[in-house]
Specification:
single chain, 91 residues, mainly alpha, 434 Repressor (Amino-terminal Domain), 5 helices
């Protein structure tokens, strides 16, 4: 089981790998959608070094064009990283 504060980074990375995107490519996608974000910020999120805001999760879902179920998993992962007891990532 991952460290209790690393769920979001793992989920985010899973989607990047599935779409074969580097962090630089992800940043370019953010920029094309009109979102201003630094590569350092994206990198911090992918390592769970910075807690994601709900707004960041929504932007990420839009940029990656993820289905609703994947969006829910990302939101749940962000909650778990903050210590909320919500029954796990797949609940």
């Amino acid at each position: 089981m991952p460290s209790p504060d690393k769920f979001f980074g793992l989920e985010m990375t899973r989607h990047l790998v599935a779409q074969q995107l580097s962090l630089t490519e992800l940043r370019k996608k953010f920029m094309r959608k009109g979102y201003q974000i630094s590569l350092n910020h994206i990198s911090d999120m992918s390592r769970s070094d910075r807690a994601p805001t709900p707004q960041f999760v929504v932007m990420l879902v839009k940029v990656l064009e993820l289905p609703k179920e994947d969006a829910r998993r990302l939101h749940r992962a962000a909650c778990l990283d903050r210590g909320f007891d919500i029954g796990g990532i797949n609940a």
